[in-house]
Amino acid sequence: MTHLLEINNLDVKFDTDEGRITAIDNVSLTLDQGKVLGIVGESGSGKSVTAKSIMQLNPGNTIYNDNAEIIIDDENVLKFTSKNDLKKIRGGKVSMIFQEPMASFAPAIKIGYQMVEQLMIHKPMDKKEAKNISIDMLNRVGIADAEKRFNQYAFELSGGMRQRAMIAMALSTMPKLLLADEPTTALDVTIQAQVINLMKDIIKEYNMGVIFITHDLGVIAQVADDVAVMYLGSVVEQGPVNEILKNPMHPYTKGLINALPDINNLDAALTPIPGNIPSPLDRPSGCVFRTRCPHASKEGKEENIEMGLVEIKPGHWLDKCGVDCGKT
Amino acid sequence: MSENIVSVNNLSVSFDYQENFLSKKQKIKAVNNINIKIKKGSFFGLVGESGSGKTTLGRAILGANKISTGNVIFHDDDRDFDLTTINSKEMKEYRKKAQLIFQDPYAALSPRMTVRDIIAEPLEVMKITNSREETDERVRDIAAKCRLNLEHLRRFPHAFSGGQRQRISIARALVSNPKFIVADESVAALDVSIQADILNLLKQLQNELNLTYLFISHDLSVVAHVCDIVAVMYLGHIVEMAPSRELFRNPRHPYTKALLSSIPSIDPENKSKAIELEGEIPSAMNPPSGCVFRTRCPHASPDGKEGNIEMGLEEVEPDHWVDRCGVSCG
Fold first, then answer.
1. In what order do the strands lie in the sheet with A316-319?
2. Is A194 close to B266, i.e. CB distance below 8 A?
3. What is the per-residue pLDDT for B8?
4. Rounded to an integer, what distance in angstroms lies between the CA atom of residue B61 and that of residue A133?
5. Is the confidence at residue A302, as pLDDT, over 60?
6. Residue B41 — left, alpha, or beta (φ > 0 → left; ψ -120 to 50 → alpha)?
7. CB-CB under 8 Å, B265 with A190
8. With 60 as the cut, is the pLDDT of residue B1 above it?
9. Does B113 lie at the interface with A, CB-CB under 8 angstroms?
């Protein structure tokens, strides 16, 4: 069976005034239809850059490596350069939901016009049909009074409503792959619960593949089937969500889980991960996590370990350096 | 000497609002008839969604918002400050005692000042120190307590990560030796790994310096971990208030229950469904009559009798206060 999405050996570098920085280092991921892949990690770990690479939305100073592949429908979308090809992935086969719904709608154009506009670009249909589909979609995501909302501006909608409208817009072209970049982070927790349930229903109904980016492990646990933990541009641990969260092996994954306040165990002390995520300008050699790792050896032998995932249990992939560390 | 450091009595804060220059002026009540007492040395948590009035309440206690009715009294060792009648001279005195830590460590620090100048500014403005040496001494002292290096003091904020910047903000708030700190969403902008570090630092400083916190947050699991007592706000009202363990073990108000159940569990097998609330928090411009939560309450009666219930806290168990309407509902 072919995968819906296959990312192979992706490196992403940015040329900046201060030098060339590595944002993504040798990331490989696969996603099947109807599945949700969660990507977690701190800010600066490369979650969003990975997702944006799929739609080639990274800025102009981005350099992809030559042997990188992002395969959707047997085509390497990284090689797309013409406008027509890019249109196929941007909004056609792939849609994206961003974190800040206020920033993703144009403020001076009515919501409805924006929805109709993008539908007509991707699907052969007239204005009337596009309007009907859009209003349908708004109803589908639980917006009351869809017809009235269709003629309103983004600022007239509340935060949760805007995010629903964003979801409706992203789904109206029936993409095969949905990239959700922190879709619930800006929302209040009661609204977050509504939006998560809505997304789960829609994913099931349309049987699409979803990449769900978040820094919230709780959200991942509730939405994702598989999870990839990223740190400083590398995937350090990957596998089924149940396995990774119940049986984390990499010290970074363990650190993230221990740092999380657990509402069911108020006596547990909060354990921060020491130090800060290093600047991508001075990315550690060898194991990228070694500068913050509680098991790092004194002689610094982790400097020389090349990073790479190994399968330690069926489906559970772990970075080489994390396999032995912590075992005494 | 009172055991409380802050008493808030029947406090309401309203803002004037005018849709356009022709329409009539309206009053928006952001905070409505609040009564709280904050004990000395406690970690008092205030939770609620955006628009519930948490920040307005915090700012009113600091004297940064005008108080419409009711009063706020700050009990210092030998004197009381009444925030409703305070004059500008007393206000200067009060500022030394009560300080604020902001949410966004990126916006709160001036990019053109060195860390030393940022931390020293309150001392200079309040004229607490008499010489530059004394100022430097105080800055170094508080920086060390907040785990900043001396070498950091010469640099500018852009050189620091979010967690370090938040430590600089904390140092600035504490340099005047205050007794009471309002921490407004102070960890919301940070990554979880850093968040734990800042929370531990706040706790440690509380013990070292005898501080009392009003900790404002939308994140219940954070509040559950650090606070001794928690008040839940909804649309300008406190709907439930209790010691945190009691509140999280035995929530009584339907809004508190819904909030608690909405926290996504980190256990993938725990698919216990969140109590899903209909709709969103209503606009403060025209809040529902009676119980403000009734428009989203899963137990609201069809005949709408909650519209006539006056809001007010009742003590259901020692120290556990629940809004009248929430006591019996469900």
1. A94-97, A177-181, A209-213, A36-40, A226-231, A234-240, A316-319, A309-313
2. no
3. 95
4. 51
5. yes
6. left
7. no
8. no
9. no
Q: What is the pLDDT of residues B242-256, one digit of tens each?
A: 999 999 999 999 999
What are the strands, taking DSSP E only, across chain A? 5-16, 19-31, 36-40, 62-64, 69-72, 75-76, 94-97, 177-181, 209-213, 226-231, 234-240, 309-313, 316-319
Is the Cβ of B201 closer than 8 Å to some Cβ of chain A? no
**Complex ipTM, two decimals?**
0.82
Please report the DSSP string for B189-212 in residue order.
TS-HHHHHHHHHHHHHHHHHHT-E
Distance from CA of B84 to the nearest CA of A (A): 33
> Exposed e or buried b for every residue in A76-90, given b needs 16+ CB within 10 A?
ebbebeeeeebebbb
pLDDT for residue A90? 87
Residue A135, token pair as written in the block: 């209003």
Query: What is the DSSP-derived secondary structure letter of residue A90?
Result: B
Place of tokens 């969260």: A245
Mean pLDDT (whole number) for A76-95: 88
Which residues of chain B are within 8 Å of residue A259 when distances are taken between CB atoms? 192-193, 195-196
DSSP summary character for residue A29: E
Residue from B158, B160, B167, B193 to probe the interface with A (highest A Cβ count within 10 Å): B193
- The pLDDT, as a whole number, for residue B69 is 93
Number of Cα atoms under 13 Å in the Cβ half of residue B241: 21
Query: Is the pLDDT assigned to residue A107 strictly greater than 70?
Result: yes
B271 interaction partners in chain A (CB closer than 8 Å) = 222
Secondary structure of A142-195 in the HEC alphabet? CCCCHHHHHCCCHHHCCHHHHHHHHHHHHHCCCCCEEEEECCCCCCCHHHHHHH
pLDDT tens figures, B207-228: 999 999 999 998 888 999 999 9
pLDDT at residue A263, as a whole number:
79
Size of interface A-B (CB pairs under 8 A): 122
Contacts A225 to B, Cβ<8 Å: none
pLDDT in tens, A115-136: 999 999 888 889 999 999 999 9
**Is the separation of the CB atoms in A168 and A141 below 8 Å?**
yes
Q: Are A283 and A200 in contact (CB under 8 A)?
A: no
List the end-to-end C-alpha distance of chain A, in Å, as a whole number.
Answer: 41
Selecting from B248, B262, B269 the residue whose C-beta is nearest the C-beta of A189 gives: B262
